[in-house]
Design goal:
This protein is an all-alpha fold. The protein has nine helices and no strands. The model has no long low-confidence stretch (mean pLDDT 89).
Length: 174
């Protein structure tokens, strides 16, 4: 209690860290964000299919988990500060929820038809996709896709320190 004044005085005299707002803006990468989001979506769709095959149960909430990881990947690799990065994360997460469901449907189709997965994939047509979205995808899948996009949007923007935020705001005020 008696030593607090001294510590506070020392802390006040420390110089503020210099933050270059131009470096923060230059660190953004839309290309890296898109690539990271797509790779994350593909890897997690593979895990989703693997776990479904191992357990024999479908986990629709996995699309929300996928959305979280897509948002974090966009944040980590895109280092975005503006509206483009949440849009990328939300779009990839939303489409990833349906892509994951499509990947889950391929093993079921191979079992029913007695064909290989490659033959089923080669046989996909617009009619197949239309049938998939009208007969397989339900309202619940749309809700999970929306939730996946929402959490991806939430986690996608870069978190700034107060000094970085101040430097960007003063740059914009000029």
């Amino acid at each position: 209690m008696f030593g607090l004044k001294k510590k506070k005085k020392e802390k006040e005299q420390e110089p503020r860290p210099r933050v270059d707002p131009e470096a923060l803006i230059a660190a953004q990468s839309v290309k890296a964000a898109v690539l990271a989001a797509i790779v994350t979506m593909l890897v997690l769709s593979g895990f989703w299919t693997f776990f479904t095959g191992m357990t024999g149960r479908v986990f629709p909430w996995f699309s929300i988990v996928q959305g979280i990881f897509i948002g974090l990947a966009v944040r980590r690799f895109g280092r975005g500060l503006d509206w483009r990065f949440p849009l990328i994360a939300g779009t990839v997460a939303w489409s990833g929820a349906f892509f994951g469901n499509l990947m889950l449907a391929i093993p079921v189709t191979t079992n029913e038809l007695g064909a290989s997965a490659l033959e089923v994939i080669r046989g996909l047509t617009w009619w197949s996709f239309r049938t998939f979205f009208t007969e397989v995808i339900t309202v619940v899948d749309h809700i999970y896709a929306f939730c996946a996009a929402a959490v991806a949007i939430f986690y996608s923007n870069r978190r700034l320190t107060r000094h970085e935020d101040y430097a960007l705001r003063t740059r914009q005020a000029r």
